[in-house]
Amino acid sequence: MVNLAIEAVKEAGDFLLDNFGKIKEIHYKGDRNLFTEIDKGAEEIIVEKIKIKFPRHGILAEEGERKDIDSDYLWIVDPLDGTHNYIRNIDIFGVSIGVFSKGRFILGVIYMPSSQELYVAEEGGGSYKNGKRIYTSLRENLKECSFSFDSSIRYSPKVMLNSLGKLAQEVFNIRMFGSSARVLGYIAEGKLDGAIEYHDRPWDFAGGVCLIQEAGGKFTDFEGAYPTPQSIGYLTTNKLIHHKILALLRDSL
Question: Which CATH number characterizes residue 35's domain?
Fold first, then answer.
């Protein structure tokens, strides 16, 4: 499964790079939520590979593919994470695949095509970037920590601005990248110390759960529970500061 996931994200990533700056159509699937024919094309590349190699496995993909989602093995796919960056020719975008089985995310692969960064993790096997073992940061003092925060503040401004304000008082600084794949990779290799996302769907974060946990981090919902394919939103950190940020979020909520 790992080999297939790596092959799939690389092929989809090459497709994204080949079409970067060449979008012909932009479609709306909600309030200021866009997708393109490139999203669909990348998804087709990945889904076809999964169906051929693992026909009995389930698939949940962002752009519409739904197949046997109660299967023992569920592939959760984001073929183009950072679509709005991609549309504006900002090269912060990635491809993300996670596999969920028997209550656990057992595999995570993220590929950032522009920089050719490949993140890979299997449960129990550690996390790697381009073949080199990676680890989350060891920062415990919040005043030294850098966080990523959800950019979709328009969906729940009252709650999110409250949380953002409290977080800003506690940490060193806050960033918004417009790509969960980018953020989750940075946390796994210790460049960021944590991320808060209120509205991310399973395809946004599935590739990062196993990756961050195998790198030494922690990944939960806002109640501190392990995420599932039904989860919306999450907190992920280097583990050492997780309880502090959970407490901050609970006060905000």
Answer: 3.30.540.10
Same domain, 120 and 216: no
Q: Is 250 exposed, middle or buried (0-12, 13-18, 19+ CB in 10 A)?
A: exposed
46 in Cβ contact with 97 (< 8 Å): yes
- Whether residues 156 and 113 fall in one domain: no
SS3 54: coil
CATH of the domain at 224: 3.40.190.80
Structural contact between residues 179 and 131, judged by C-beta atoms closer than 8 angstroms: no
Tell me how far apart the alpha carbons of residues 90 and 184 are, in angstroms, rounded to a whole number: 18
CA pair distance 84, 25, nearest whole angstrom: 13
Distance separating alpha carbons of residues 226 and 117, to the nearest angstrom: 27
Report pLDDT digits (tens) over 42-97: 999 999 999 999 999 999 998 777 788 889 999 999 999 999 999 999 999 999 99
Across 102-250, where does the E strand assignment appear? 104-112, 117-122, 126-129, 132-133, 146-149, 173-175, 194-197, 218-220, 234-237
Q: Which of 101, 133, 165 corresponds to the end of one domain?
A: 133
Q: Report pTM.
A: 0.94
